[in-house]
Amino acid sequence: MSSTAISIFIVEDNAWYAELLEYKLTQNPDYTVRRFATAQSCLDNLSEPPDIITLDYTLPDGRGDEVLRRLKERLPEVAVIVISAQEDIRTAVGLLQQGAYEYLVKDEETADRLWHTVGNIVQQLALRRENTQLRKQIGQKYDARRAIRGKSPAMGQLFTLIDKAARTNITVSIVGETGTGKELVAKAIHYGSDRREAAFVAVNVAAIPRELLESELFGHEKGAFTGAVARRIGRFEEAHRGTLFLDEVAELDLSLQAKLLRVLQEREVCRVGGTGSIAFDARLMVATHRDLAREVQEGRFREDLYYRLLGLPIELPPLRDRGNDVLLLAEGFLHEFCQQNSLAACSLSEEAEQKLLRYSFPGNVRELKALVELAAVLAENGTIAAADLPLRSPHPVAATALTGAPPADESLRAQTTAIVQHYLDRYEGNILHVAAKLQIGKSTIYRMIQHQEVQVR
Ligand SMILES: Nc1ncnc2c1ncn2[C@@H]1O[C@H](COP(=O)(O)OP(=O)(O)OP(=O)(O)O)[C@@H](O)[C@H]1O
Fold first, then answer.
1. ipTM surpassing 0.85
2. Does ligand 1 lie within 6 Å of residue 62's CB atom?
3. Is this prediction's pTM over 0.90?
């Protein structure tokens, strides 16, 4: 069956009326119609399930509500349009509550209304099919061994943990420096798990203003606060049956930590301004670049929440500890970039390889990717020379270049802060621009702003 083909069963004991409906529906060559004069003959032919069933309410071998119940038991997804000789509101409401898609009364316009209703269902089916197809493609994209490159022993252990995490619903806590691939790992686990058909919802806690975060996570009712003009469901509800990924979880303030703990214990959320609780079924994964145990010791993170979130801990090594994976990744990114941009294939010279292997990559894989993509643009004759790799990340050398010789007692952190502040001033607080310039994650900058280490002024 082609992706546009729609199969429709007409269940109608009046042969003339069934013919009329069939005639109307087959005006669309994509609709394949089969007719059944009894409920039983339709029920006996569900091995190749139709997309839509039109069901006469009064059949010789069963009443509409009973037949609908049996159909829905066998095919919960099928759209059933009940067609009845009488208009009876109570019956109609009952059927709709039972899961009927529509209730139509037999009159001279029924065939036209049926045509219209079927058209609506077909549009929804097309969206659903497209959605399934897209999810499948995304699933393939994030297949762990395809998406995550690395052959070092540390990466071997990582793949084993990803497989284990994907087989269960255990909470996963991922720790690693910025750009080490924490979100990529979370996606690989989600798309490798039974939850792959439902959504992967990522929330960067550091990127959302504190006062909006509660409503972002748990939703709000209309009028809950100024600006809440309509009800909005939160990310927990959005991730129902799927996965909720809380990035930079250590940045949650203590009052939200308490609320999150309660939500995880009860498995229910309460929308801001709402009275009732809503059960959710989302798997939780969290990530942070901080040492959460230390955050607990220093009183910034609740111990009880820490133990709730720890689950299966996965630690991502910094790129500088992954040996030759640097070259493997560089070659992969180069290949992809050249293909996507219709550039002739290019490769790394010996000196370029050595330069990459010696570099510390404070921005990790994200920085490497940006670096080799730029090099592919700068390279001549398909070979990347060492000079095509401008190492521009904030590190001691860059700090010296920016401010003159750094004071001997200035820490790397203080120098990093100075560089980020310098670029924020220079680019008038354009965070995306500064992140791109320095090849660091924008969440790193949001975090620094949140901790008042830098300012947008
Ligand atoms: N092992 C890997 N193989 C291929 N691509 C990778 C790998 N690790 C990371 N990447 C790529 O590097 C980039 C950064 O990864 P990601 O966003 O997952 O990092 P992160 O640790 O979540 O960063 P941040 O802490 O800034 O949120 C992405 O483009 C990702 O696809």
1. yes
2. no
3. no
